[in-house]
Structures are given as C-alpha cells and as structure tokens.
Here is the input.
Amino acid sequence: MTGYGVQVSQMAPRCRACTLCACPPSSCCARPANDVASRRLIADNDALEVNIEMLVRPAASSDLDAINEIYNDAVLHTAATFQIAAVTMEERRAWLKDHPEKLYPALVAEIDGMVAGWGSLSRYATRCAYKHTAEDSIYVARRFRRMGIGSLLLARLIDAAVTAGHHSLIAQIADNNPGSIRLHEKHGFVMAGQLREVGWKFGRWLDITVMQKTMEELKIKN
Ligand SMILES: CC(C)(COP(=O)(O)OP(=O)(O)OC[C@H]1O[C@@H](n2cnc3c(N)ncnc32)[C@H](O)[C@@H]1OP(=O)(O)O)[C@@H](O)C(=O)NCCC(=O)NCCS
Here is the structure.
C-alpha cells in the first residue's frame, strides 16, 4: 500500500500563538503566506477554515513514539479504550510486527510531517472461522480531532479490508463514545448490539457498543 495524499478543508482551531496566519496548531507560524496550509479563507473569533494537506500511509517504526503518545493519552485520560496501563514501547513494537501491511494494516495520518492520528485493522478473534473478520481501531490526537482525519483513516482501512479479503469489520466502542459511533455510522457501520457493564475503569462500569460493516461485494474464495 502506498501513501494517499489528500487535502481536507475543515474548520480548524486557530493557532493561538499566531496572529498573522491561519495555520492549525501543528503548523509553524512562520510559514510563507502562499503556503496552502496557512491560506486564510474565513475568519471568525476562534476558528478559521484552512486547507490542510494530509498523507495517509502505512505506519513505520519511526512513527511508534507518536502512535503511543496518542494512544496512551486515551488510555490514561479517557474510557475510549479498556486498556488501563500505558502501552510500553516494547509492546508497541510487537504490535507493529503483528500488523502486516497486506492483512492487518496499521496506518498513520501525517500532517506537516507529524503523526496526527493512526488506525489499524486487527484480527477480531483467534478461532479459524473468524479469519474473514477484522476489528478496527482509530485514534486521533486531541488537537487534530473534528477535522476529518478519523474519517479518512477509516475509509482507508475499509479499502484495505476489501483488498485483504476481510468480509466483516467490527468496531467495539466503549462508553457510548459519540464521536466514534458517528464516525462508524458515516462509513456504513450499523449497530450490532450492546454489551452492558463489561468494563471497569475510573471507578465505574462501562458498556461496549458493537458496530459492524459487512462488505457484500467481497467474494470469499474458500
Ligand atoms: C473518535 C475519533 C477517532 C474521531 O476522529 P475525528 O478525526 O475527530 O473524526 P472526524 O473529524 O473524521 O469526524 C467523523 C464524524 O464524526 C463526527 N464526530 C467526531 N467527533 C465527534 C464527537 N465528539 N461528537 C459527535 N460527533 C463527532 C464528526 O462530526 C463527523 O461526522 P459528520 O461528518 O457527520 O459531521 C476521535 O475523536 C478520537 O481519536 N477519539 C479518542 C479515541 C477514540 O475514541 N477512538 C475510537 C475508539 S473505538
């Protein structure tokens, strides 16, 4: 899989350090005025519409620090994942090895050379008959949310799932996470059910919402 370069035009938070340009917080405020990422389109109090160049590509070992930082923020501060302890770099390196590009890809969304988010497909369950079912994970760094990055990553993961020969994609969404539910609905996932009080984190019970997308177009060969 090669990288996909795209532009998204979204409302993005203004870099508060900069009064001259409309660059998103990731960007250098000293960008030239004609740079696409700093082109001012609309101004209001706190948000500006900007064109942001984003690349989605397979994750590399040099991305693992950033992937871990984004994930561990969700581990330590949110109920979006049932993981409770921060993932170590050793575990993260093993994770990348477990994600061969053609079958269970790990992708990153890169903006301005920075990893803004990542997504992956993983084996859903180990019993053999589950082999055409995969589970997706998507995590976007806080400052890059609501800019279309999660949506772009999920679109690429769905493409990759079809190419890999997966028939069914599952999303297990913790704590009725509205952003994740909306993201998956937008890409054709439907509600498959709810598991009540299956997790315990931050002193309370957590539900899992299960969503599913079946790729009808895929012909299973065996
Ligand atoms: C959930 C998450 C991946 C969404 O990524 P994102 O880049 O912010 O999402 P997008 O900007 O592509 O938005 C996709 C859709 O979801 C909606 N959405 C995103 N966040 C939302 C929120 N907090 N509440 C309601 N809707 C939300 C967007 O409006 C958009 O729908 P629309 O096109 O109909 O307007 C991101 O918020 C995140 O990383 N959260 C923490 C980790 C997490 O929960 N991961 C999912 C684990 S299952």
In short: Helices lie at 64-77, 89-97, 149-164, 178-186.
